[in-house]
């Protein structure tokens, strides 16, 4: 099972346009990253706040609902966040490459 | 009482009343002292009393430090000693000039009460405790209420000097007491002093008996009765002569202000914002019956926020938490959750555990699909016949787009756009490169799921086969990968249980896989079957029999045809077993037979009496009739009811037949393709083909009717892929797509709902092409096909 996870992670990193992949745990400590440490920490910190806010928004509207995925499309890239209780998976892709 | 006053005159015994009074004053508890043992007990415990007193009261200590006979002398102008002498010698121990000491010595009174518990009764009087703190200075027994003493006390209260005298006398007494104490100490320094801590009687400081009585209590009845009597009385009272209203005047008690000093009360601010979901979460968890939820909620939520405030890398400013950390529960939580009722104190999840968890895999899976969607979005949109959205930020691409638009417009000027194939993408990954695509099948329930079998056709290049289940949402990696021991030559998805995939292999094995599970092994395998195929299985099909044959089970059955000349029907009966529906016997050419006769039999050496079967197809409506194609080039029409004889034989092809397929729209018409470079269109009742199609001199490996138009079919031969539209032309294919050099195209599949064609080649790629500018007309064109057939037949006659 672990091998499959590794394979999938590797495949994701090698897809077209993917700039970086980050897995952080609940405290914001990176578990896996393909970017440098400062960028990783910055992304993790900022995206965590945003995810919390997004989740709060979703649940405020309907408490039975919950946030499953977050995508931010910007001029240069697209940031995709898969939040969870214990970790956060962040992928930055440049889709127009 | 006279006793205390009498005793006051004796210096030694001065201790006793004073101490007693002090006891009374300090504790604020009035004790009636009438016991005879009083003197004895006091004497015995004098030392301890004084000890306690000395320890507690600062004033007492100070006074003990002061000069023993410290007298204050008041001298008037004339130097006369007008020191007022107290009328009443107060109990020196009772002096408490500082009010606070009353409280302090209250505790001492408490300790002393230990000694007195056995001898004294405690009486409580709420009013006395409050009002007589001052009046207890030097009071004897106020509870007894000797007015003389009280008056004297009240006088003395206003007189400040009396206090001093009190202190002086106290100091006197104190010194004496000290002396007494010291004597004892010198003698008995090394003695073990036993201190007995005895639980005192309960001191009732305030007793306000309740006005209301519980219904269940024993007095309830009497109370109720009294109540009812009273209400009656009230009722009777109004007009009754017996009762007269009179006004009275009562004394109002004199009020007195009292100041109290206490330590500063620490206050802490706590605030929270209750979100909608916060309340919902607490409510849900409360409904699940968690203990102490309400208290925990507040503590936990606050604790969460504290931790989040102190989180190591977080500089979050949470609008919710304005909390001082002093008085709140400090939790060692490390989880940044929003559930407020969780106060986890567990260790943080191991990173390895996170990576291996199910949720992480799921998230990765979703993430990969989303990334691919970003990459393939235009292609997938074209597949689904949705308008493709241009990325507004991709400026550099705008230029080539403009160019192509100009090209298209120039084409438009020439005439109607020619039908063409546009290559959208191809399913391939590193696992499949180099393998030959032998068969493809769509899932019957999920039209986005494609199963592709990889295996060599020829005998010499055999290697282990592969079955990949691809999803449209991920063209770069298959969802399921099954490796088989020999090359895969046939595939089909079941219609009744949509996750069953039947696989036929080059060594004759038939296996079924469950694509829903993640297991890599087949559900069942035919390798143990006695009657298994001994030669490559060239086609498998799940056929739904509506009519049961000879009482057997209805429903779906797996039918296979293999090169050992048998068409078998497989079923599960203690393992996979099969019965033969038909044995394909070799049929010799009738013409030769007639001419040559017996000589033919001798010269022709038969390897086997069976003709290898290569393909079959069941009639779309009548599941009893099927066609089978053999290596000899014969097409046999057979029935499930007869397994000895063919119903019909159609002979036209000169080479092995690779595919037979009934038309989905016209139930009489079928197509066959073979390695003799031709595709033949037949009608069921005619023994010669109605139409034949030949475009190149290459073996045609696969042919398939279009699911949308009755006049369209696609064919794939070694070098190229062709789409024929009989309504447009019966001589040439409408669309031709050549294969990449060095690659042979081996299989073809139409997509059911969209205008797309899938082509598999010998390099392991399954390319998806979209039919552009192609339409055979409105409707299914069944009429057109029949017209064509009719006109062709008419022209032949």
TrEMBL record, chain A:
One MF term in the entry's GO annotations: dynein intermediate chain binding
Keyword Transport carried by entry: yes
Gene Ontology terms describing biological process: microtubule-based movement
Listed InterPro entries: DYNLRB1/2, Roadblock/LAMTOR2_dom
Top-level taxon: Eukaryota
Pfam families (alphabetical): Robl_LC7
Location in or out of the cell: Cytoplasm, Cytoskeleton
Job of this protein: Acts as one of several non-catalytic accessory components of the cytoplasmic dynein 1 complex that are thought to be involved in linking dynein to cargos and to adapter proteins that regulate dynein function. Cytoplasmic dynein 1 acts as a motor for the intracellular retrograde motility of vesicles and organelles along microtubules.
Protein's UniProt name: Dynein light chain roadblock
Species the sequence originates in: Esox lucius
Gene name, Swiss-Prot/TrEMBL: DYNLRB2
